[in-house]
Amino acid sequence: MTSTPDKEVPGGSPPGTFPRVRATRPAPALVSPGPEEDRFPMVLPRRGNRASRASAPETRPVPESEPESEPGSAPGACPGPPPAHASASGSTGPPTGTSLLLGAARHSAGRTSAVFLCSAASAAASLAAPALLGRTLDLLLGRDDSAGFWLTVCAVVITAEVLLDAVVAWLSGTVAARSTAWLRVRGLRAVLDARPEDGARFSPGDLTTRLSANATEAGNAPVTVAVLAASLLAPAGALVALFLIDVWTAVAFLVGLPLLVLVLRAFTRDSSESVARYQRVQSDLAARLLEALGGARTIAAAGAEGRERARILAPLAELSAQGRRMWLVHGRAVARGGVLMPLLTTAVLAVGGLRVAAGRISVGELLAVSRYAALAAGVGAVAGLLGTLVRSRSAARRTAGPAALPALAYGTGSLPPDGPGTLELRGVTVVREGRALLSDVELRIPGGASAAVVGRSGAGKSMLAAVAGRLTDPDEGEVLLDGVRLETVAPGPLRREVGYAFERPVLFGDTIAEALADGPGRIPESVVRSAARAASADAFVRLLPKGYATPPGRAPLSGGELQRLGLARAFARAGRLLILDDATSSLDTVTERQVERALARQVRPGTRLVVAHRLSSAARADLVIWLENGRVRAVGPHTELWRDPEYRGIFTTPGPAADGGQAEGAARAEGRVREEREGGPRDRDRGRGRGRGRAPASAAGPRPDPASAPVSGAAGHPAPATDRTEP
After folding, report:
1. Is 522 exposed, middle or buried (0-12, 13-18, 19+ CB in 10 A)?
2. Burial class (CB in 10 A: 0-12, 13-18, 19+), 205
3. What's the pLDDT tens digit per position in 660-669?
4. Bias regions of kind Low complexity — which residues (predicted)?
């Protein structure tokens, strides 16, 4: 028989009471027979209402910058309509590579303009120098007295050109650095503002490459465009000067110009594809290396060093091939330009020599023609700048991937002051990758109660914890805390009142003290140390070489110690709702008891939602939420749920057991927990010396705790694996 919660739970149970477990009809299957497209007809847009549950599922659009899945990123995106982005160009929609480059250029618009103006001034100086040198040469040959003045002018112009080039080099480095920083901050902010599950579509190695190497290449784009635009001024001006000196010299240069255009066009087309592939394989290589570093112990224990080395280095062959192709394309363009440009210059000089012989131009003008021909031939040097621009555009498209993640939008409201922490889930449905992780969940947890979420692996426990604290939004339904919908609350008040502790906490900060105090606002060090004592972490932290001043990366921490520090961080900022997502799985039974006792007595009172795998955790909770295949199978006290053999099966392995004995053991466990938490008769009797004939602890030894001991099975034998952790 399947048990489901009473449908009157959200509004029918008075505060401080829990719905009774009652048997009803079996819960309907999540997937109904029929065509694939009809299997999940109950998906709604975010913040939808019950009246629109028949709406078709909405899928998150793939950004223009990410046309297809790439190695190192998880395929597919999480469904749900994303909020509108404000792109760098001012339009709405997810940012693309082009909009990011425009935004980076706008971020350093002043310095980028200075780069262009200085480059243009340098080009003007380079254009003036040949004419000045030619005139000075003619004056020197004619022994004119004004030749000295023009010689000084030539020196000033050449010096100005050199100084302007130096200023351009300095400004270029500054602009590239500022643009790179802007792109990295933009991408990192988008990752941190997105739902954690959306950010997880990029592997750590892929994300690191996109926000480091790719952002660096993309950051060169603004200054490259400015320098490229200015570099075209000198060849264009030189060509005009050739027309002014002698039209036939300009015609001789224009004859070969179409060939140069074809070379540059082929270079741009071929290098774009090879650069994109090279960057993609480079990211895949980084992702594999980072995975291996994270699993170094597993690799060493399995003796798989050779196989893992081969797996990591497998993309090297393609990386080498794409690198060779990229530089081959570049080399061809440079070689063809290197041959074509000298030929054009030689042709111009030959025509100029003939015009001098014919008396059409002077020797000084021939010198100017030679210099202008060299400047006009400089158009072939734009191949290098075009190559940089191609790499920057390709890198910008990859950097736009993280920047296009939809942000988790917040409201501007607040929670009621001094609220008890009543948590309600109304018709919550969550669909990911076409699969319903939660389906029509109806819950009401009274303020101040502790609720354990149990179920087999894949039942949706962690997703329920994520939705309850708004790490993600449901596709349908709503979540309320003290009567306020979570999506309407501003981020500051929400994160101050809703705390989390996870199975694998990550510590941020230069010291352990900073890591434990991490969060909105500042908290006193005394609060941090008190929270560490409550989490049974103070003792081993003080034994570290620098105590609380020890950098987290240099502290030799076990898995249990790391979890205790994660709990301490959550305790230090405990609000009206505290969610523990398998946060005690690495603790031994004694430490777990100490932490639970401190949580009940030393941490700010509030509602507790605990993802539990151990029988003892479920027995100590006021309320147990039993999930099965994303649905709420039953809600009620542990002692009542224990009567259901399928519920007992969550904590036990198949084997002979007496149901009555197990239920009696569970009842004893819960009674002991209640008395210990509330200071019941046992504690009072022990304090007054009325032990009812019980031997003192020193004589009889410590009494085992039924909540942490195995429940007795048939014939007094222990039931197998009654207090286990899911694999």
Report:
1. exposed
2. buried
3. 444 455 555 5
4. 85-95, 654-666, 694-710
